[in-house]
Structure formats: structure tokens, C-alpha cells
Write a structure and sequence with these properties.
Layout (H helix, E strand, L loop, with lengths): L2 E4 L6 H11 L7 E4 L10 H10 L4 E3 L3 H11 L11 H4 L4 H9 L5 E3 L8 E3 L10 H15 L4 H7 L14 H14 L2 E2 L21 E2 L10 E4 L15 E4 L9 E6 L5 E5 L17
Helix pairs in contact: 6-8
Bound molecules: BIS(adenosine)-5'-tetraphosphate.
The site of BIS(adenosine)-5'-tetraphosphate has 25 residues, from helix 3 and helix 8.
Enzyme class: hydrolase
Family: Belongs to the Ap4A hydrolase family.
Pfam family, one: Metallophos
Length: about 290
């Protein structure tokens, strides 16, 4: 059995199928960990959802900010935004089944490491240094319980927002859940106190003064951290002080879709198959 971690699909279904073929992925034998953001901005969100769901136990995904955006639009009264490509999901005959499935996905995946190495942990955006893996798993569980509980709709209506910008143990209610959501699904740059920045979304040189990528802060433990979300990193983690793997190589932006073999650390990627005139970015990372 081989387990592969794959970055943000964002509706890139053709590339997803091509990548699985390149991997010779066999759902009877192999496993997939997906970094979330299965949907939006790309052309085939509906096909991506159906494909991953159909893989059953062979595939598991964490929730990303675009997945939560879909849920907020469908079930939280949020409006679609310019550039969203969620309509085909929202109008699909099997929409409720797909949304129920998506809403019950976790925020964090973890697996025991090999002897002598730490755990493997996946979240959509990363893991901040102030949260141990155990703490993060508890907080992810709180959010998952809310999303699958009777107050899920009320939470989705109030999920959006950038405040509070940092975690405190005594946060309660929607403030607490919002920091958990924003940390697991939107984090990029943080400051030394763990405050989240929501203004910068491009490369490392877009860091606001006093902020650095979350992976440039040291941790007390040593998990192998798998994350997506940050396409401008192009699969790299410059200056990282933790063991981290950036998996979003910007397929939806005209880059590539990448899989990481968790047994040997090898990456395989396929190029984006669409012309995306909106994408002004170089795609420097090549397939091994
Ligand atoms: N509690 C909550 N509060 C508020 N919102 C919530 C929420 N929960 C969920 N949401 C949702 O999350 C969104 C806000 O999250 P953000 O994380 O602030 O939004 P984003 O930048 O649009 O994220 P995205 O996931 O698209 O990032 P990507 O790297 O692909 O793309 C980012 C940028 O990278 C650039 N880029 C891509 N490839 C690049 C490259 N190779 N080089 C340089 N830049 C590149 C692109 O131009 C793009 O602008 C909201 O719009 C909402 O939908």
C-alpha cells in the first residue's frame, strides 16, 4: 500500500484523473490524503467532489477555505463571489449528498510516524507553532463537531471574518471557532505572538512587516507537516524551521497538480491542462 498526499484540486478534475493514472493509483491497495480545496475557481468542482467521494475509504480530505466557502454559500446564506465556479455543485441533483459528505470531512489528519520520526499531520493551511499536534487535533475536533452538529447552519452564517486574529485559550463561541477555521484553512503569515495576517497571499516577499510564514517559526515537537493552500509557494518552503511539505503547486493558476509519496518523499506532478489567461505566474516547478 502506498499513501499519496495531493494538493489543492480546486476543480481540476482532468489533471486529478491524469495524476492518479501517472501514480498507477489502485483504490483497493493505495490511499490518498487530499489537502482540501477540492472545489472552486477551477472548471470541474462537481466532478472532483464526486470522484473523491466515490473513492470511499481510499481517499480522505481535510477541509479547505474554498470547501467551507461552498458550505457557507449553500447552507450559511453567504453569497457567491466573482470568480466562483460553484454553480454546478449548487445546482446538482445530488448536491445534498455531496454537501453532507463535505461537511463531515475533518480539519486535520494525522498518522503515526516511523520509529524515530514524528507524526505525519495534514491540514489545509498548516500548523502554527503554538499548537502541539495533540492540541491542534482537539481544536480540529471541536470545529468538526460544530460542523456536524445541530448548530452548523448558525455557525456557517457567522464563520466569515478576520477577527479575532490570534488564538487565546479562553476564547468562546463563534470567536473561538473562527480562529480555529482561519488557522487551519487560511493561515500564511503570522507574527511572533501567533497573530494571523489576512492581507498577504502571494510569495514570501509579500510578508507584512513583523510577519513571517508560519513554517519559519520553530516548534517544540517534530511532526511532518503536509499542507496546501499557498499556491505562490510553488511547492517550496524556503527558510523552513519545521519539516513541512507545500503541496499546492497552483494547478488552478496554470501551474501543476502534485502528489507526494509519503513512503519515500518522492513528488510526481502533472501540468495544468487549461489555458488560464488570469494567471500571470511562472510555473517553475517541474515534474521529477
Ligand atoms: N472564516 C472565514 N473568514 C473569511 N473567509 C473565509 C472564512 N472561511 C473560509 N473563507 C473563504 O476563504 C477565502 C479567504 O481566504 P484567503 O486565504 O484570504 O483567500 P485566497 O487568497 O483567495 O485563498 P486561496 O485559497 O484562493 O489561495 P491561493 O493560494 O490559491 O491564491 C491566492 C493568491 O495567490 C496568487 N498566486 C497563485 N499562484 C501564484 C504564484 N505562482 N506566484 C504568485 N502568486 C500566485 C493568486 O493571484 C491569488 O491571489 C474567502 O474568500 C472565503 O471564500
Amino acid at each position: 500500500m502506498t499513501t499519496y498526499a495531493i494538493g489543492d484540486l480546486q476543480g481540476c478534475h482532468v489533471e486529478f484523473v491524469e495524476l492518479l493514472e501517472r501514480l498507477e493509483f489502485d483504490p483497493r491497495r493505495d490511499r490518498l490524503w487530499l489537502a482540501g480545496d477540492l472545489v472552486n475557481r477551477g472548471p470541474d468542482s462537481l466532478a472532483c467532489l464526486r470522484e473523491v467521494m466515490a473513492l470511499g475509504e481510499a481517499a480522505t480530505t481535510v477541509l479547505g477555505n474554498h470547501d467551507l466557502h461552498l458550505l457557507a454559500v449553500a447552507r450559511g446564506g453567504e453569497r457567491e463571489k466573482p470568480g466562483d465556479t460553484l454553480a454546478e455543485v449548487l445546482e446538482a441533483p445530488d448536491r445534498e449528498r455531496l454537501l453532507d459528505w463535505l461537511q463531515s470531512r475533518p480539519l486535520l489528519l494525522r498518522a503515526a510516524g516511523t520509529p524515530g520520526s514524528g507524526e505525519t499531520v495534514m491540514t489545509h493551511a498548516g500548523l502554527p507553532p503554538q499548537w502541539s499536534v495533540a492540541r491542534a487535533a482537539d481544536l480540529a475536533g471541536e470545529l468538526a463537531a460544530t460542523l456536524t452538529g445541530e448548530h452548523a447552519g448558525a455557525f456557517l452564517e457567522r464563520m466569515y471574518g478576520n477577527r479575532p486574529a490570534s488564538w487565546r485559550d479562553d476564547l468562546e463561541g463563534v470567536d473561538r471557532l473562527r480562529v480555529i477555521v482561519n488557522t487551519f484553512t487560511r493561515m500564511r503569515f503570522i507574527d511572533a505572538e501567533g497573530r494571523l495576517d489576512f492581507t498577504a497571499r502571494e510569495g514570501l516577499d509579500s510578508a507584512p512587516p513583523g510577519f513571517a510564514p508560519w513554517f519559519q517559526y520553530p516548534r517544540h515537537d517534530d511532526p511532518w507537516l503536509l499542507f496546501g493552500h499557498w499556491a505562490a509557494l510553488q511547492g517550496r518552503v524556503p527558510g523552513s524551521r519545521v519539516r513541512a511539505e507545500a503541496l499546492d503547486t497552483g494547478c488552478v493558476w496554470g501551474g501543476r497538480l502534485t502528489a507526494l509519496n509519503l513512503a519515500n518523499g518522492e513528488r510526481v506532478s502533472v501540468p495544468s491542462r487549461r489555458d488560464r489567461p488570469r494567471s500571470p505566474f511562472p510555473t517553475t516547478r517541474s515534474s521529477p
